[in-house]
Write a structure and sequence with these properties.
Bound molecules: 2-acetamido-2-deoxy-6-O-phosphono-alpha-D-glucopyranose, zinc ion
Strand content: 15-25%
Number of strands: 19
Shape: globular
Mean pLDDT: 96
Low-confidence stretches: none
Radius of gyration: 23 Å
Distance between the termini: 51 Å
Helix content: 40-55%
Largest sheet: 5 strands, mixed
Strand order of the largest sheet: 1-3-2-4-5
Length: about 525
């Protein structure tokens, strides 16, 4: 790869029409799928080069646009431990996607190779997956063309969830310590530990294993049908929104993002009071729970709720196990103020706040022995330090005290049912169901643990969102100058008031979050701050 001409002659032809500008952001590149062929081709080239750079480690490439409508698609690269692409390479992804022609593409690739002194004798290994979108197959061809230019080892897993691909990448690069890179191993690892833990739960009390599953008409539904076989009736999963053939239905008025954004039940299913609804998104890396009461009032149990549920349980298990371990929770400014209060004051688990975007949360969670992170939108997981995992297993092997031994065994189950690489709706569902069962809670019991502060999320279209700059994990607005002072004086008029503004990373607008003692006040506060922004 020292020769532009040579490289150019075998990379194939996916010209950039030059009509759109692309950016590799927090969730990779997303766009209307019509404009993505050359982008996917170039990401195929980049992912192969990244694998060469990482000495033939498997690197992943997922073709998905998550909760976006069916006409969109996108791409995300996955680094060797199953984490998101290192941010230093996001810049190259953006530059390549926008390069005018193949000649520039080749020059850029060679520049990267020179900069990192990449040893071209390594043969790249690329793991590929895609969601159920129509355009996926066509865009896969473009990716393959790019990847093949580097004579790579390619593993195409077909239609899988995003977290499955993260898991597979990690399996290969840990020499299969994490599992085997195939669906059977994935289901077996997660589900077996779930079943073992379930057997330890003797008194179900109010817990019900019945789940009304909203698959967003996407890959989450497809894979849940496979998972049901592994679950062997430990959970009763009633499938809804599982029409993946009519792809225009993907994420349409259903799924985790719809339920969270609209604060209402998914359509496409009969809603019965106190049934437990589980919604996932279009690539099954997010999950939210919900239910309605006898008056059809809607209750959402989002990422904040899942985080508090999991943090409380894990904390209790560590106390019971006798191990002194530092457990922490990572949230964003969007987390409800009362969830933060509950975790800090009641559960006595420390809480850190970081900017929006999974990579920030994931990164911060690594600061703890056991770091739990969840965005309010339902994306999250638990990270266990290697030495904690070992400590638990070693102690479990020798522990004589019955109660301590039981807690250690339960912790091992939780570790094994967690997909630590990234948020995973299936894994998260197993964890939530485990905790609910252990606590003997119905979905409404879970809801009663604390009450959310009334809140409102709105958005304002501004001339240039780049004039907005935030600090302190997005909780204060640094630019435009003077705006924060105005927000402060507005907020001070409201009891329990809190509000912040931040430029969206995915849409061309500014988001405003407000919470206060009553819904009316939260709404009013949001309007007042929005007016100040505008
Ligand atoms: C992206 C992020 C998500 C975040 C959302 C915020 C990843 C994989 N995804 O979808 O975590 O909540 O952006 O969108 O990091 P916003 O910037 O438009 O508010
Ligand atoms: Zn997603």
């Amino acid at each position: 790869i020292e020769n532009v001409v040579e490289l150019e002659s075998n990379i194939g032809s996916y010209p950039n029409p030059g009509t759109k500008v692309f950016q590799y952001g927090t969730s990779g590149i997303r766009f209307n799928s019509e404009h993505l062929d050359h982008v996917n081709h170039r990401m195929g080239l980049l992912v192969a080069l990244r694998s060469i750079h990482l000495k033939s480690a498997a690197v992943g490439l997922m073709i998905t646009a998550s909760h976006n409508p069916q006409e969109d698609n996108g791409i995300k690269l996955i680094d060797p431990q199953g984490e998101m692409l290192d941010s230093s390479w996001e810049v190259y992804a953006t530059e390549l996607a926008n390069a005018p022609n193949n000649q520039d593409v080749c020059a850029m690739l060679i520049n990267i190779a020179l900069k990192y002194n990449i040893d071209k004798t390594y043969i790249p290994r690329v793991y590929i997956g895609r969601d159920t979108r129509n355009s996926g197959k066509r865009l896969l061809e473009a990716v393959l063309c790019g990847v093949k230019a580097f004579k790579s080892n390619i593993e195409d897993f077909g239609i899988i969830t995003t977290p499955m691909l993260h898991f597979f990448v990690r399996c290969y690069n840990t020499n299969y310590l994490y599992g085997q890179p195939n669906e059977h191993s994935y289901y077996t690892k997660l589900t077996n530990s779930f079943k073992i833990l379930r057997k330890m739960c003797l008194d179900l009390k109010n817990y019900s294993p019945i789940i009304e599953f909203d698959g967003a008409n996407g890959v989450g539904a497809l894979k849940m049908k496979d998972a049901i076989i592994y679950l062997e009736k430990t959970l009763v999963i009633n499938m809804h929104n599982d029409d993946i053939l009519n792809t225009e239905k993907l994420n349409y008025k259903c799924g985790a993002d719809f339920v969270k954004s609209n604060q209402c039940p998914p359509t496409g299913m009969t809603i019965k009071p106190y049934s437990k609804y589980v919604s996932v998104d279009g690539d099954a890396d997010r999950i939210v729970y919900s239910f309605v009461d006898e008056n059809k009032k809607f209750y959402l149990l989002d990422g904040d709720r899942i985080a508090t549920l999991v943090a409380g349980y894990i904390k209790d298990l560590f106390i019971a196990s006798g191990l002194d371990v530092n457990v922490g929770l990572v949230q964003t400014a969007y987390s409800n103020g009362n969830s933060t209060k509950y975790v800090t004051d009641k559960l006595k688990v420390p809480v850190a706040c970081v900017p929006t975007g999974v990579k920030h949360l994931h990164h911060k969670a690594n600061d703890y022995d056991v770091g739990i992170y969840f965005e309010a939108n339902g994306h999250g997981t638990i990270l266990f330090k290697d030495y904690i995992r070992e400590l638990i297993r070693n102690q479990s092997a020798i522990e004589q005290n019955e109660a301590m031994s039981l807690a250690l065994k339960k912790l091992i189950c939780i570790i094994d049912m967690t997909n630590e690489t990234v948020g995973d709706a299936y894994s998260d569902m197993l964890i939530v169901e485990s905790v609910l069962c252990e606590r003997g809670w119905s979905i409404s019991d879970w809801y009663k643990t604390y009450s959310d502060l009334p809140n409102r999320l709105t958005k304002v279209t501004v001339k240039d969102r780049n004039t907005f700059e935030t600090g302190d994990a997005e909780r204060i607005c640094i630019k435009p100058l003077g705006l924060q002072g105005i927000i402060d004086s507005i907020v001070s008029k409201y009891s329990m008031g809190r509000s912040f503004v931040r430029p969206s990373g995915t849409e061309d607008l500014v988001r405003i979050y407000a919470e206060a003692d009553t819904q009316i006040n939260a709404d009013k506060l949001a309007v007042e701050v929005a007016t100040a922004v505008y």
